[in-house]
Amino acid sequence: MFIDFEGIDGSGKTTLSNLLASRLKRLGYKVAHAREGGELQSPTARRIRDLTRDARLLEMGSRAEFFLNLARDAQQLEEVIAPALKRGDVCITDRYLYSQLALTGGGRGLKEAQLLPSCELASQGLWPDLVILVDVDPDLARLRKRLGKVQSGKVNDADSRKGLVGAGLAVRVREAFLAQARKDPSRWIILENNDQPLRVLEQRLVDAVVARLEGREQPVQRLVPAPAPPPPGVASVDDVEERFFHAVDALDAREPQLAAWLLNGIPGLAAHQRRLTYAERLPGLVARSLTGLDDDTAWTLRDVLSASVPVDVAEGLGFVTSPRSHAVRQRLYAQAPEAVLEGLKRQDSPEAWALRERGMKDGHLSAVLLGLAGVDGEESWVVREAGMQRKLYSEVARSLGGLTTERAEALREALIPHDRLAVLKSTTGLETPVAVGLREQLEKGALKLVLRSLTGVDTPRAWAMRERGAQLTKEALDSVDGMDSPSAWKLRASAARRWPATVVSSMRGLPLVAETRALLDRILEEQAGKLPVLRNAYAVVAQARALEQTQRPVRSVVETVGMDAGRQEA
Question: What pLDDT does 229 receive?
Fold first, then answer.
């Protein structure tokens, strides 16, 4: 039997396909997995995949990408799949030609009828007996994928070509997969992976596959685990705190790492109470969840966690620049020099420069450059010159973030041939000639970065680009974070149904005035069951309330839980 797993990035198909392979082997079946452990088993196919992911190849057209992906699948078929089936093995794949139809047809917009003949040629008439579509809310998949990068230490890895298009690509690809499943229900099983423990999904999957292997057809083609019931009533701003923490507590039983990650940047007593329960189990995620927080409990937790996860503590400081942050960075430097140095963005204080000078002496030039964004003193230009001499072009480009001087623009121009994406990132919030030119040049191939570079820009050109982008991807809404103009509210209202979670997050930092509450209430009522929407809504509300209230509720959490640094370290 030939079994194929399909689904968007972050859906869990790789994990589930490998779990199925292991279970079937234990049941006595001979199994070959063409992507065992997440790696394509054909070396040639791996090299082709690297080519299609290379973000430097932005000019690669959709048809060229399609034929390269077909070549990858054809090689896997000849080298791995066909021989396994000939031996009589159960052969499992993680993606097959259906992915190319979904990506190029649904995602890139080419007509499926034009693509099918080439897929038939690549398949040699060999198509899966069973296709398992692991279906998931794209916003949730993106959260899981981001969490996975954090846990694997790949959070700073560059985007792939596909990733540069923006999150809207996953939405379109998912819709294409679902359309394929509807056309061929006898071949496809849809396994929903939104709100159930992995062990439950694994067992349902094994039961369905074994039934097929034994010739027992199962009439139900959509495997939908029952979600935990939400609190009664209609979701609104007034009860968003209760609903969010109810969801987090339910999530803890099946995905504790994700539950801890959802607390990232959220202030207040309730969030801190839960961080304390995770501090021993998931210290790194707790440290990172403190990003941007500057209250007493946040500092207590950082003190507790510094010894065990210094890198995470350093990266969880965010842009906090209080005297306490300087002391913590000084203390963490010996264990986490690069994270400390990269966290000095927009800081031109003597304390920051003392750390940079130390970092230069210790050979951490790249990290010093990455932490120079927003700094324009003469000392910073000496460091940039050293970076140019060392050919650290990407790092030098990113060190220019937020700078609008002629000197910065001239250096951007010089860096474009070396790393235009890094230069584009450095123009976030700017409307300089280099910024405008790069956005026009890269809008098609790197729409995600182009739109995010518009954050805070309030010009007719920027709004026209956002309106075009909002039809395709959610990053158009990322670029209006915290903006309170009529144009921003108009864009939010028009995109609320298409990109609800991002529309909500774009209101973070705004006061809870009537306009904010009305849009939040509308989205919460329409999307109450979606965890990413609920999380972003509570982040907006919590931050607005934190700005209005004293720090007394936050300080009291230490007294409430009774934790002290010495006991936690022990």
Answer: 58
- The verdict on whether residue 12 carries a ligand-binding annotation is yes
14 is in an annotated binding site: yes
- Confirm whether residue 190 is marked as ligand binding: no
Q: Which two tokens stand for residue 376?
A: 């324009």
- On whether the CB atoms of residues 193 and 11 are closer than 8 A, the answer is yes
437 Cβ contact partners less than 8 Å away, ≥ 6 residues apart: none
Alpha-carbon span 209 to 87, nearest angstrom: 19
For residue 371, report the phi and psi dihedrals to the nearest 5 degrees.
-95, 10
Task: Give me the residue spans of the domains in the chain.
Answer: 2-223
Q: pLDDT, tens digit, for every residue of 435-493?
A: 999 999 999 999 999 999 999 999 999 999 999 999 999 999 999 999 999 999 999 99
The pLDDT of residue 555 = 39
> Which whole number is the average pLDDT over 190-198?
89
Residues paired with residue 31 on neighbouring β-strands, in sequence order:
90
10 is in an annotated binding site: yes
Q: Any known ligand binding at 502? A: no
d(CA 176, CA 540): 33
249 is in an annotated binding site: no
**Residue 145 in marked binding region:** no
Q: Are the beta carbons of 229 and 197 closer than 8 angstroms?
A: no
Percent of the chain with pLDDT strictly greater than 90: 82
Average pLDDT of span 155-178:
90
pLDDT in tens, 206-260: 999 999 898 876 654 565 555 555 566 668 899 999 999 999 999 998 899 999 9
Element (H, E) at 51: helix 43-53
Say if residues 188 and 181 touch (Cβ distance below 8 Å): yes
Q: Is 374 annotated as a binding residue?
A: no
Q: What is 2-223's CATH number?
A: 3.40.50.300
Q: What tokens were used for 205?
A: 């999957």
Residues pairing with 192 in the sheet:
135
Annotate 532-562 with DSSP letters as a single string.
Answer: HHHHHHHHHHHHHHHHHS-SHHHHHHHHHHT
For 203, the enclosing helix (H) or strand (E) is helix 198-213
